[in-house]
From TrEMBL:
The keyword Disulfide bond does not apply. This is 2-oxoadipate dioxygenase/decarboxylase. Its cofactor is Fe(2+). The lineage of its organism: Bacteria, Pseudomonadati, Pseudomonadota, Gammaproteobacteria, Alteromonadales. It comes from Ferrimonas aestuarii. GO terms for molecular function: dioxygenase activity.
Amino acid sequence: MDINTLFGHLWQDYLKQCPSAESIHELLGQGQAIINDHVAFRTFRAPGLGIDALAQHFLALGYEAKGEYHFEQKKLYARHYEHPDHTQPKVFISELMIEQCSPELQAIVAGITSQLEPGFADNIETVYGGAPWQVSQAQYQALLAESEYAAWLSAFGFRANHFTVSVNELDQFGTLEGVNGALKQAGFVLNSSGGEIKGSADVLLEQSSTMADKVAVSFSDGELTIPACFYEFALRYPMADGELYTGFVAASADKIFESTNVS
Ligand code: OOG
Ligand code: NI
């Protein structure tokens, strides 16, 4: 599978989990192609399922590991990957450090991940396959009480949890304020945790995001409509050498995670 085919699968899956993406494209691109800055994945730090298990497919396509990021409060660790062809989207993969979570959470996660065959993540289709396990509404709610991230991951599994519009590449908008204004005027709800704009020119990256679209999910014991996937917007600033900064900013990312929060 080549990169474009992989991102094609990711995009098709993402549109089902974030139906707003289509109208946001029209609003921001006004018929033009949209360039994606990055996509993001979530996983559990468990044998055969951690960051490396997902990253192997991107490494095989020529991606290289770059920055790493720590989120102590949320018990997350993340890495980002870049392709030598800078027109390809960057990839941000985080994992929940379940060994730091409560015994109750660990037991639920073990019950979920034990449903998978060894080597499950070695198949590239894993990265856009969604949740490969059965989970009940009670398990989802129990995870939610401790970790929004764990609950989301149990319900949605492996897929692009967001795509990110490169605002640098938009013709009609030059600032994130402009993008946010157009989105709000069109009725989209932005993630306001830590302010609508996360970061600044000083850290070479400004980001904003919508709150996730709500989608009906089939749990083992019935359906529940919950926050699914969201859209992000990124404006990058040049470094001293004139090249745009390509990394992420942990303090901003910490708030972007909250775009899938239930409450
Ligand atoms: C990732 C949040 C971080 C960014 O651009 O800083 C992020 C997530 O929600 O899984 O995407
Ligand atoms: Ni992002």
